[in-house]
Amino acid sequence: MLTITRELRDAIVAHARADHPDEACGVVAGPAGSGRPERFIPMLNAARSPTFYEFDSGDLLKLYREMDDRDEEPVVIYHSHTATEGYPSRTDVSYASEPGAHYVLVSTAEGNGESDPYQFRSFRIVDGVITEEDVEVVADHAA
Known about the structure:
The chain has helices spanning about 5-20, 55-70, 90-95, and strands at about 1-5, 25-30, 40-45, 70-80, 100-105, 120-125, 130-135, 135-140.
């Protein structure tokens, strides 16, 4: 299960909406070994595409060095789908290289419904196998 603060969830959704119609992408880092998402790091979609996302390799290298220096790891790797449901595509699965990470998908596609204007779903992707997991949104980590 992914436990995430309302503030982080809202930041991810806001990033997805701001980059729409292109896919948004980013990382939420946390202390190594904690499994606790804490530091929101929006990234640039180098593909600038409504159907595909790609981290800039230079930005990604810089991020991993920074996380290493801070004794952090990627707890959440997120991106948005702008025209389809929030479910990993074959391409998403092929890029899933962090078996310990939560892969969050936000769908900003029209038709999610008035009462649910976006989907926020989390998955584990290990060796090509997709497993959806529950998401618990909390006020803060102390709660």
